[in-house]
């Protein structure tokens, strides 16, 4: 191998004739190109395997002693699919050898007769290498933009409230889907005195980076405004929050942006049942709040007078009052649903000309909520609803979409439900809490112990392998436990990576499975302990949500894991 000069643009020259290599490299040097010359294909391949990104083009002969240039090109294409390839040859294209056709079958290959001289080579090389340099620049810019957007998406998600929370008196669950990497939709869930919750669902005008920046500024202001008034809960009402946000928009984004919003305060029923559940809300240009009876599959009319106001920040003199606010009391078992209008824009096509019918949205919502309530948890309901839309062919999301479900906590007899933040410090506490629930209901100590071990191991597995450091900081895991026949059925929901946390394919005792296990950490995917404690493991994915169900035998039976 001979290297000629240190230049930004470097060319690999392959020819089995030393004088030709010297001549070509000398001409490249005079034209401002660096070069590396080799006399065999083996040398060229060895260099390219390690340094192919260092070269801007390859100049090669066709007829060489150890291998022809076309075989060499095939090898190179397995290393770099697009590096320009110049064939310099003394062969005559009129001789019928068909080599010209072989050259042109590759779009990044070029033919140059040796008789044409190096000046012609330099002109073609300059044009092709220049185009490749521009292509690389554009690709690098795109990659940098993707990295920046990925970081912005992480930052934005970290500013959102946790995606689900099961409290002692109330709950909420969300599904937040950006149209692009970042979103102009925001949702906030802020605890107020007396067990109340403030929910804000907003949709900034437009989508993409600009809307996302406004969204994050609005979030920061909203939290500051609420925190400053927490001592006097009477100063936090839907219309007061709306007026504060409107003033913020007019001061900072006048004539530039506005926001549709639904602002709601949820008051759960008192522990003794003396005070019923109450909701007060104002809609500012956003879709109205929907209150659903999931058992009767009925929408409760709560705003017959169509109260509400204009979008926040749109008109300078807008003022929101109690006349715009809806207040109502609810019986037990109702579910409140708030959505951004991106949900209504889901369609079969990218242009949005065939949007999902409202009747189908309602039917799918009833079915998903009914099934979720029957099984004792709504944590996965928004994700299952989104997947149902996709399965009906409505898979084009033409805008940011956010869905929030909330209401008073209701518990089915014999069903345990909880959410826990992804934190190693809280894993043991979450597992102990579930075991205590089992003990309080008279479940066998051995069964409670096995359940505690499985949940602790699974949660640590999700923490270790489901997320990177940026993602796990704000995510939560949903848990449901109930008896299902001869098994305790433990369901875990997480939004980690789609790769399964436990091996659930056939042949779980195979050598391949054990090799996979060996590469995992102590709290690792496919942990043998979990397999031995479970009679079966099932796994599904609903968009970004993983649902893993572990079946632990009710009686102490030594059964190997069955898969589905």
Topology at a glance:
Elements: E1 2-4, E2 10-14, H1 18-30, E3 34-38, H2 41-51, E4 57-60, H3 69-77, E5 85-89, H4 99-104, E6 109-113, H5 118-159, E7 164-166, E8 170-177, E9 185-191, E10 197-204, H6 209-228, H7 238-252, E11 259-267, E12 277-284, E13 290-293, E14 298-300, E15 326-330, E16 335-339, H8 358-375, H9 381-391, E17 401-408, E18 416-421, H10 424-440, H11 445-465, H12 469-472, E19 476-484, E20 487-494, H13 511-518, H14 528-533, E21 536-542, E22 545-553, E23 562-563
Parallel strand pairs: 2-3, 2-4, 4-5, 5-6, 21-23
Antiparallel strand pairs: 1-3, 7-8, 8-17, 9-10, 10-11, 11-12, 12-15, 13-14, 13-16, 16-17, 18-19, 19-20, 20-22, 21-22
Short description:
The chain has 14 helices and 23 strands. The chain is α+β, with helices and mostly antiparallel strands.
Cα Rg: 32 Å
The main sheet comes to: 6 strands, mixed
Shape by Cα distribution: elongated
Strand content of the residues, in percent?
15-25%
Q: How many individual β-strands?
A: 23
Name the CATH superfamily classification of the largest domain. Answer: PPM-type phosphatase domain
State the CATH class of the largest domain: Alpha Beta
Poorly predicted sequence stretches spanning 5 or more consecutive residues: 500-526, 557-564
Number of DSSP helices? 14
The strand line-up of the biggest sheet is 1-3-2-4-5-6
* Overall average residue pLDDT: 84
Question: What is the percent of helical residues?
Answer: 25-40%
Separation of the first and last Cα atoms: 57 Å
Number of domains as seen in the coordinates:
3
Q: Indicate the CATH topology of the largest domain.
A: Phosphatase 2c, domain 1
